[in-house]
Amino acid sequence: MIPSRPGRGRNAVGWKIPLTPEDLARTFGGEVPDRLGGFGPLQSLLSNAILRIPEVAERFTGWQRVLGGGEVASLPGRPSAGRELERWGRCYGLRTATAADLETALFVVHTYLAWLLKLMIRKLQAPLPGRELSITEATRLARTGAPDRLLEWLSLPENGPEDGIAAAAGRLAGNAPEACFDWFRWSWHPPVAALFGELLAAVDALAAPGQAAGAPPDLFQPLHRQLIPRPIRHRLGEYYTPAWLARHLLDRIAPELYRGPGGPMAAAPGAESLPLRLAPDSGSGRSWIPWRFFDPACGSGVFLLELLNSFVRQAKAAGLSGPEAWARIRQQVAGQDRQPLAVLMSRVNCLAARIQLLPSAGAAGEIPIRRGDILRPDPAGVPVSPAGYDRIVGNPPWINWEHLPPGERRAMKPLWERYGLFPHRGLDAIMGQGKKDLSQLLTYALCDRYLADGGTLGFILTRSVLKSGSAGQGFRRFSLPGPGGGGVPLRVQRVDDFSQLNLFSGGAGQAVLVVLEKGRPTEYPVPYMVWRDKPGDPATQRPNGQAAFPADLERLAMAAEPADLADSSSPWLTAPPEALPALRKVFGPSAYRAHAGVYTGGANGVFWLEAAGPPREGRQWVRNLSTSGLVPVARIEAELESALLFPLLRGPDVRRWRAAPSALILMVQDPERRRGWPEDWLRQNCPLAWHYLKRFEPQLRGRAAFRRYFAGRESTRRPEGAPFYSMFDVGPYSFSPYKVVWPGFGARRMQAAVAGRADGRPVMPNQAMHPFIAVPSEEEAHYLCAVLNAAPVGAALLGHTQVGGKSFAQPGAIARLRLPRFNHDLSAHRALADLSRRAHAAAADSPADIPALERQIDALAAALWDLTPPEHVLLARLLQP
């Protein structure tokens, strides 16, 4: 949500404003915009300048390229995101009604932040030759309407010549982080002058940073969160790393930072006793950590701040002087980010930290933090020694492949293929098997290009890279291409799973810390630590600035290995080490095949319907559920042929031992040819449905899956003449009279139910929400439902799928379970079917009877996998909270 902006307070210009995250957010996220009356005038000025001034248009286009070209404008059309963007616009006087408005609004706010950060660098840096103006003098020039000298001052290089950054006036320099925000030089009008005047006065009022007692905080997380709305931050993959998590990950890849000379006395929770490898300082006998550290997606610099704090602690313990210590730190710590603002925020944070932590260092330059794209290296970017970096650490952007613009996907495709991360083709890739995250590619590219042999990489990744079925398959090979066709192995040293915690402020969970070592193969099982709130404690959102590891977390020691031991790329199975042998009995070839439900390609609002009147003479009046899809459509009523209407199971319709359709779906798909019925046939035989669908033809042809699979360049199958209303994941199995269905989206345990006919018609589950298995008889359906709801299957799914995520118990996961075929001659099978019938009846009439029935089911099902009583008890315990 957009926080309310405070008005003027004690920190109005004229007071000394403390250099704290809260005061910066209050001043520059509230007071300065309030005094300006919002950013609307600046947005109008920018929009006109883009059309009239080539230099301004060039900078705006360069900024769009940096963001990926269209990522912001292609935000999901979800109502909640739209409302949040509207509130943001009202809060700051910005227009956000169209995609063009949204982009200029964000560019204005980015410009505002960039100007603020540049001015803060001016205030924190020691003067360089030619930098005669003070902040106070620059404020006077801005207010007196004499911009020439001010523009000259603002165009000076940000760093000294030894750092090699030069932003020549009037030129878009690829490596200058602020270059795209200097458009004001060609459009110096009253709104620009007013903004500069307010910013200069407020920066002039900032207090000098004092010496820090502990680790300096990230100054800009609260301000950035206030100025940039959550939908945009998340589309750009921007999630704030808590300070304690940054320290925890650094301790995992370099415990010497904390347990060497000058480090904290206590190791981080769950840390093993590791040998400390410290290099002797030549000639002095003092010890010094020799490794070079690199954060390739540094954001606002939380990892860099922690590294600076740790190295300063080491330097003081080693007795190094301030200049000597700073010279070493600058050689051993580097950062990079694709976003210009991130580079500037990191630089300000590190400048302030140097002043606070090591005031005796003087003005001996900055640590190297550059703008660059790891996937498109800039020759002027961070230099890489032939040996590479010893330690790489960070929180790379979490951006789905499907959210990247088509041009970006095409440009990156060779890299995905080089590292074997994109094995899927055709419909598999389009229908979700290829939903890769950009962090996978960044991890492999960094290990390949930047990490030294024997070096270690520690990244915060989404748990899907380890648990998803196909999306993480290539990643889990843990091998880089090597010279001569050989591979360079990557060893997973350990994983810390924080997926049960709300780590990121207003962001997604599902985070894991993965530590990789280059040059050694992974050995299974891998140590796998699960962190969670202690039982009985409420879920907590901890402050991002908290430095100490939370004391209210508990650690569960697990082990991880591929679910299919014959396929190292299969999803990981995680469980207590003593439970793995019992779980192995549940895995194996399945006698049943699961399917995904009907997928409309994002057009639920067209195909999903509700009855608007009783049926008559083979026809039915219906009303479309117009807001049920990603993009709302017109709400209309129409009369359709009853033969094309089928009962539909939606999200809330399936619970354990219960499945009750709540809507209808218009089914115009040929299950054999896997596309819509021919248009001529539908027009002639079902004219009502034909005319109804024609009203939505533009929306149906605009579906991304339809364009890519039936007509797009990225498709490998393009059936000629595919009707515009064609859908996906519909086959003969979809029309089976009996199905066993379960929630496959957001569930935390198996909740299977039998779905028979409704009103004499087969029920249709919807895609992703409800995978299913088609069976020919009711008795077999109840047998299979009992088996799927049994504790051993629940424990196996809990261990190797994304519990609570988007790929819980999807068809691929079911295929790895040894589900015996129903045999009517076996009394145990018949008894399981009978218990399932009784559980379905109890779900409707007497829910209190269900636990006793489930205990009987568990006892019978355990024999299917030859589980001993202790093994059965062990697996049942895994399902307990």
List keywords for this structure.
881 residues, alpha+beta, 11-stranded mixed sheet, 6-stranded mixed sheet, disordered N terminus
Task: Describe what this molecule looks like in 3D.
With 881 residues, this protein is α+β, with helices and mostly antiparallel strands. Among the domains are: 189 residues, no CATH class; 128 residues, no CATH class. It contains 31 helices and 26 strands. Strand 8 and strand 9 form a beta hairpin. The N terminus is likely disordered.
Low-confidence stretches: 1-13, 157-175, 264-268, 270-285, 379-383, 426-433, 713-719
Measure the end-to-end span: 31 Å
Percent strand: 5-15%
Helix-strand makeup class: alpha+beta
Which value, in Å, is the CA radius of gyration?
Answer: 30 Å
What is the overall number of helices? Answer: 31
Number of strands: 26
Question: Biggest β-sheet: count, sense, barrel?
Answer: 11 strands, mixed
Query: What general form does the structure show?
Result: globular
Helix content: 25-40%
Please tell me the overall pLDDT. Answer: 82
Short synopsis of the structure:
It is built from 31 helices and 26 strands. By secondary structure, it is of the alpha+beta class. Residues 1-13, 157-175, 264-268, 270-285, 379-383, 426-433 and 713-719 have low confidence and may be disordered.
